[in-house]
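Subject: design request, 469 residues
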């Protein structure tokens, strides 16, 4: 998972108290914990792990719960046998009603045992937290989905709509992405009216009190660009004006100074409108003005002081890597930089490349795409049939905690589903500490209370959607 739901400015975090008290572990939570533990303790890193093994373990649990062979599909490709995944189907009572899809990735980023305080591939519960690689990203949601499907089957639950679940590999990197493969090769297997995914959530203050919830509706496109300057170089005792390092430095300076124009869509307009009602002045007025007049530079400048809001309202490009030269005593023959862009919906990768060429303004600085080109997700509708149940359930389970619709400034596997016509929503439910529980970092963690409460929310929300007529 990428950090994609916004951390609102501290001005918005205003004393909302959770009414949910600490609780003893229920029998259903204990059973969930066992599944969650098995998943976390199955190494699914790119280097030595196996998503195929993790999918097989979950599949065995689902078979024991009553899922038939025809309701479980294990998939992989011969070139990458460790990147397998699982699709499960719980049939609905109305064959004409379109299905809903539960999506989660079961691969995790690397974790060096020597750097961690605890073994990253052992689920450890300590001081109110679960620790382990993937304890949050994204095995928490994957475990919730698998456990929900098992309980639905065991209980005899008959949803109106068919519920599908896809647990995939490759979201965190690697040569194979399961969500992309399913979209291109087994679109029929995952066909759904919409999908529920990571990307939403909530934020806690330092005392563990919920501050706000976010539901992710749409995301930007991630694309890297290469900037390269080359020349003949020479001896450093004979400097010349044409220096690859100087040329690249000037080019990157111009990129850094350039600001893309404001580009709002239905989701970001709704988000800014919601935030305007929750924000103090002068931010509130600036947010309202920007929604009404996106070309108001003064309003855009004020809103853009918040890095997350800046990334929400426009395309952004930033230099992330730089290398140049080949010897201390030689003129550089080559300078190379990576510029990472997060492209707003409605803009294309080709258009952003043309902007970079124009901004760089140096024909000797070559701008090119980093292959392969990113998959551009389709537009995600701001649908009341999706948003309203999530908001209503949030009010019921987390009274007094506001929920905002947001657009991801990062990237998830939702882009692969969106590109084949399955709009994907990042649902809320789990509250995170302000540091997001060190996702992708050392000692990844998630609050036990947050995970159990988030599980209750997500399962109930799935049933609300599944019973819609």
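Subject: RE: design request

Done. Sequence follows.
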């Amino acid at each position: 998972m990428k950090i994609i739901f916004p951390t609102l400015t501290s001005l918005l975090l205003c004393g909302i108290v959770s009414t949910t008290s600490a609780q003893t572990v229920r029998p259903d939570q204990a059973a969930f914990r066992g599944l969650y533990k098995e998943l976390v303790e199955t190494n699914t890193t790119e280097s030595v792990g196996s998503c195929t093994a993790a999918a097989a373990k979950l599949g065995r649990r689902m078979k024991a719960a009553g899922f038939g062979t025809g309701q479980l599909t294990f998939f992989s490709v011969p070139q990458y046998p460790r990147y397998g995944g699982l699709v499960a189907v719980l049939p609905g009572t109305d064959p004409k009603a379109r299905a809903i899809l539960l999506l989660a990735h079961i691969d995790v980023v690397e974790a060096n045992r020597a750097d961690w305080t605890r073994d990253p591939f052992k689920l450890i519960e300590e001081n109110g937290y679960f620790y382990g690689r993937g304890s949050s990203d994204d095995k928490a949601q994957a475990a919730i989905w698998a456990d929900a499907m098992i309980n639905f089957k065991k209980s005899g639950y008959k949803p109106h709509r068919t519920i599908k679940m896809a647990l995939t590999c490759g979201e965190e990197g690697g040569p194979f992405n399961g969500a992309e493969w399913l979209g291109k090769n087994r679109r029929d297997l995952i066909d759904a009216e919409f999908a529920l995914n990571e990307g939403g959530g909530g934020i806690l203050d330092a005392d563990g009190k919920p501050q706000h919830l976010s539901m992710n509706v749409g995301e930007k496109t991630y694309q890297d660009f290469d900037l390269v300057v080359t020349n003949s170089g020479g001896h450093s005792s004979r400097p010349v004006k044409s220096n690859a390092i100087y040329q690249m430095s000037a080019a990157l300076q111009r990129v850094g100074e350039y600001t893309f124009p404001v580009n709002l869509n239905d989701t970001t307009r709704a988000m800014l409108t919601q935030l305007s009602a929750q924000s103090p002045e002068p931010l509130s007025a600036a947010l309202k003005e920007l929604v009404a007049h996106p070309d108001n530079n003064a309003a855009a400048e004020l809103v853009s002081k918040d890095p997350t809001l800046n990334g929400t309202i426009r395309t952004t490009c930033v230099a992330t890597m730089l290398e140049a030269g080949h010897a201390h005593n030689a003129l550089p023959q080559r300078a190379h930089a990576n510029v990472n862009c997060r492209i707003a919906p409605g803009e294309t990768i080709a258009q952003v490349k043309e902007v970079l060429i124009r901004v760089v303004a140096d024909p000797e600085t070559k701008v090119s795409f980093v292959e392969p080109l990113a998959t551009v997700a389709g537009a995600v509708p701001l649908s009341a049939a999706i948003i309203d149940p999530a908001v209503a359930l949030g009010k019921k389970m987390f009274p007094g905690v506001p929920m905002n619709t947001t657009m991801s400034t990062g990237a998830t596997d939702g882009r692969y589903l969106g590109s084949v016509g399955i709009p994907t929503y990042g649902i809320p439910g789990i509250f995170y500490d302000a540091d997001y529980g060190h996702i992708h970092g050392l000692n990844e963690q998630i609050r036990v209370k947050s995970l159990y409460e988030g599980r209750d929310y997500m399962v109930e929300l799935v049933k609300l959607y599944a019973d819609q007529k």
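The domain at 221-369 is CATH 3.30.70.360 (Alpha-Beta Plaits).
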